Amino acid sequence: MSSFIKPIKETLKAIAFRYTRLGVPTYPYCIEPIQLATLINEFERVKHLPGNIVEIGVARGLTTRFIAEHIKNQKLANSLEYFAIDTFDSFTASDLDYEVKSRGKNLQELRGFEYNDFEVWKKNFVAFPFVKAIQSDCSIFDYASIAPIKLVFLDVDLYLPIQKTLPKLFEALVPGGAIVVDDILNNTTYDGAYQAYMEFCATKGILPKVIGNRCGIIYKD
Ligand SMILES: C[S@@+](CC[C@H](N)C(=O)[O-])C[C@H]1O[C@@H](n2cnc3c(N)ncnc32)[C@H](O)[C@@H]1O
Fold it and tell me: How far is the CA of 4 from the centre of ligand 1 (A)?
């Protein structure tokens, strides 16, 4: 950069910071700091196990980007795959219908993520070739096709997709692996996640473990 342009840039930055709101730090993530920390700590714990990482429900990819950065910094990009599974088209109609008709939820409060686009999403991650995007309803996806799996972040909010997916994921998980589930908080719009998580733990005889306000964990011995 020429010695002429740099001082102008710094002056513009100072004006923007001092006289506008452009410099206010924001928190872009959909999940709590303790969940991001848990995901990284779990990644570090399982990194010597064989297997891939899976995030189910990725929205625009904020958490994907956060973990991908960690994988790149640890120079592990060539040793694993990070599968990012989403409909890339919001919730399925039948999952929403179940929340409204069987769980008494308000459809307008549940709606979201309709902005997404599979091709744009993939383009946004070309710098991270180990991130493999898969467009699918997680309830019907064949997890054996991406096994072995050592760490999962399951973040699809509603009861049915979580209730259907947890047993399949657990089956594909390596011993020592973990499934991290978001929204494990009762009496909220997305407490279908809480119900499905608690039911799964009860069926398997697993003691529920919630970190922070809503981060459920399932370990496989
Ligand atoms: C809360 S967002 C995920 C946020 C993301 N994990 C993050 O931390 O930034 C929920 C995502 O789940 C996806 N989703 C909902 N139902 C799904 C289903 N049955 N199969 C796959 N993806 C689904 C939605 O399209 C949406 O992108």
Answer: 47
Q: What is the pTM for the complete model shown?
A: 0.95
> Residue 74, Cβ neighbours under 10 Å: how many?
13
Burial class (CB in 10 A: 0-12, 13-18, 19+), 56: buried
From 88, 204, 102, 177, select the one nearest 136 (Cα to Cα). Answer: 88
- Domain residue spans of the chain: 28-219
Q: Is 30 near ligand 1, meaning CB less than 6 Å away?
A: yes
CATH number of 28-219: 3.40.50.150
Collect all residues with Cβ–Cβ distance below 8 Å to 77 and sequence separation of at least 6: 71, 128, 129, 130
Cis peptide upstream of residue 28 (ω within 30 degrees of 0): no
Nearest to 58 by CA among 153, 181, 168, 190: 153
- pLDDT by residue (tens digit) across 36-83? 999 999 999 999 999 999 999 999 999 999 999 999 999 999 999 999
